[in-house]
């Protein structure tokens, strides 16, 4: 059982370098499947989800070498096209190999994906779009078998800007015959980064960064080296830590340009934040001011930072509402924060939160990746000791949250 122990109620002061982005690296790894050659990714985060994706690629015949955060994927041979049940359940992003495998091999077998338990995670939009592109898909219980005699470019329209479905369509379209026009695409920065990697590999994509992508299929791609950008959610986590505990910090390589809505919200809550080159400086002197926050697709407030926002409102002065519009079941962390003295009332997709200034240390359980990290942040703003169990969830997405929060001056360690 992995446990993290935090001694809180002490302002932070320090500096930290932000790891590479999980949500950018994983689809980039899937993209490597499309090319009969080598793709090199730099600044790859050393996290469980990346190790799991490496295992998936290796089980298909790719050779992966990860050293000093540089990952070389040699996909000259792809002999197997099946994601095992175990890998599929371990990580939701496993589903994005579907589009790439169809593009490369014309077949794929996978399972309905697992990952965080944050609400229902349907993949109907992914499957429907792939069918429109010429895939035949059979579902037997949780198993998915997809095959095609050749993917064809076509007009695909997503009724919701699903990040995963956008990635699957993109990956399938790169080597399809003809032109795919995808409307209603997600505009998350990680999609833009995926498009930039694919373009560097030789894909023909127009409309990058917009909700309308035009992809002209190509026969082959080329070897590429690409740098994974800093993780905006990890950056948001550590900014939240400084806001919750008070103090000041410098975050390096944190992708401030992709955190506009988050930084705006944090400023409204009283944080002084300045972006300066690749550094983000934050100072928080008072308790956060309560505001109302609503999650939504990019460029809105990210659902992945909703549980951090819940912590910040819990240690604020005043009352604030937190509305979750992306994943209906993402309030599991509220129950844990109650144990720390938080006053949170859940009404459907809304949490009504009355700030208490500070929380109290308690024994709590990480329920999911971001919720677990939020408990570490809450621990820093709590009097006494907070003991967090089931921290394996956190290591799916954070290289070493204890190392990073320690370098910001926090008293936090992993209990072995
Ligand atoms: C989502 C987030 C992404 C975040 C990631 C990890 C959004 C829009 N997406 O991406 O920013 O990094 O979680 O937590 O904020 N849906 C369907 N059918 C589908 C696919 C999705 O109904 O086929 C629904 C989901 O149930 C959910 C919403 O669409 O309510 C968003 O899903 P999607 O963007 O696909 O999720 P992820 O790709 O996991």
What report would you give on this structure?
There is one protein chain. The protein has 416 residues and is of the alpha/beta class. It contains 14 helices and 25 strands. It has a 4-stranded mixed beta sheet with strand order 22-24-1-25. A 4-stranded mixed beta sheet has the order 2-14-16-15. Helix 10 (306-314) links the parallel strand 17 and strand 18. Helix 4 packs parallel to helix 6 (163-174) and helix 11 (332-339) packs parallel to helix 12. It starts with a strand and ends with a strand. The mean pLDDT is 95. Uridine-diphosphate-N-acetylglucosamine is lined by residues 23, 92, 120-126, 160-165, 186, 188, 297, 302-304, 326-327.
What brief labels describe this structure?
binds uridine-diphosphate-N-acetylglucosamine; 416 residues; alpha/beta; four-stranded mixed β-sheet; 14 helices; 32% helix
Strand order of the biggest β-sheet = 22-24-1-25
Terminus-to-terminus distance? 9 Å
Structural class by sheet pairing and helices: alpha/beta
The number of E-state strands comes to 25
Outline the biggest β-sheet.
4 strands, mixed
Work out the oligomeric state of the chains in this entry. single chain
Number of DSSP helices? 14
Radius of gyration: 21 Å
Strand content: 25-35%
Poorly predicted parts:
none
Q: Which ions, cofactors or small ligands are bound in this entry?
A: uridine-diphosphate-N-acetylglucosamine
Q: What global shape is seen?
A: elongated
Mean pLDDT: 95
Helix content: 25-40%
